[in-house]
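Input chain follows. Return structure tokens only.
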Amino acid sequence: MAQIIQSNRGSYLLCDTDHGHLRSERDILDLLGLFWEVGANLLLISEGVLHPDFFDLSTRVAGEIVLKLSNYRVKTVIVVDLDSIPSQPFREWAGECNRGKEIHFCQDRDEAENWLLDKES
């Protein structure tokens, strides 16, 4: 489900499209188990990993996943083109998340890695 990425600025766990969908609280708990094994606390999630229900706030998938990550203080960045998401409420919610320091949405992987590994954020 994830791989450790090491860069000259730090290490993080990458969830990419080759490893299935994150669609439930159970999937996040499995991922957190991997975190504890490798001692990670930074996570980058590629858009393709998220189940389409994540982008529909009425399903509560996004809320469950983000709440679990926040409860365990996992600094997480999600790579997604917000302009391509048809749900205005989702885009507004993502904007609210971006005001915080634990969950952030970015347009591309370079931007995401910069935010994730920025020691000031």
